[in-house]
Design goal:
Layout: H1 19-59, E1 77-81, H2 90-94, E2 98-107, E3 111-112, H3 116-125, E4 129-135, H4 142-152, E5 163-165, H5 174-192, E6 197-201, H6 202-209, E7 218-221, E8 237-244, E9 253-258, H7 262-266, H8 282-285
Parallel strand pairs: 1-2, 2-4, 4-5, 5-6, 6-7, 7-8
Antiparallel strand pairs: 1-9, 2-3, 8-9
Helix pairs in contact: 4-5
Amino acid sequence: MPAARHTAKVPPHRAPPGPWRRVLLAGLLLGLLLGGAYYFRHQVQLNRYARRAWAALTKGGLTGREKTPLLTGYSVHGIDVSSYQGRIDWPTVARNRVRFAFIKASEGGTLRDPRFARNWREARAAGVLCGAYHYFQPNRGGQLQADLFVRTVPLAPGDLPPVLDVEAANFHDVAVLRREVTRWLRLIEAHYGVRPILYSNHSFYKRYLAGHFDNYPLWLAHYEVERPALATSKWIIWQHSDEAYVPGIRGVVDFNVFQGNFQALQALRVPATAARAAPAPASARR
């Protein structure tokens, strides 16, 4: 019989990818690049959202008993709150080594925090060392905002100094911003007889405020870092987290540390001979 003839199989011819495939691949690659760039730019906030979502899924909701470990290396810890935190159990907060609290009092020229009076009364009754803060709106004058704060906050000897929160970027002229911030600080200092504290986040402070308010104590917000990027001589309070949990508060709260011991924090309080209930004199307003 004749030998069997073996023939090699020729692979079928493959047509080159069609235009739609190339467009799809290019789109996927572009999406990956844009997604990576967006994550790189917003990774801190995205990570926070992811952690919060995971906690909600695994814990079945917040109970008000969650507890964030205290930051090591500091002995004086505190929080700052507003109506966003809802009803706060201040005695429980005080039992969890919260030594001080700054409470939002006002914002802009007309807004008063609806929970300020309750928080102010109950925090002080619980033995927490308290101060009040005003959220500065650049589109309103410094005198108008100072007047609102004075009408809202009954600071007394033994309270922490007033705080001006400057971080809103809705302004057109940084020189005007600095002028009105200066006006608020001077009016408030004249009224209460104590130098106010300036609060801002790291990027805003470096860009718009650094070098212009060095005579005022700085409360610096700088998250997800081992230590603030500014030298320790530049700040007295560090807001190191905006998503901490403290028993007595149902939800997240800002966590802070004071650079020093509790006696040094007490030394900042409104002195007995300085606080006044009357409005600042007209000469101080100019």
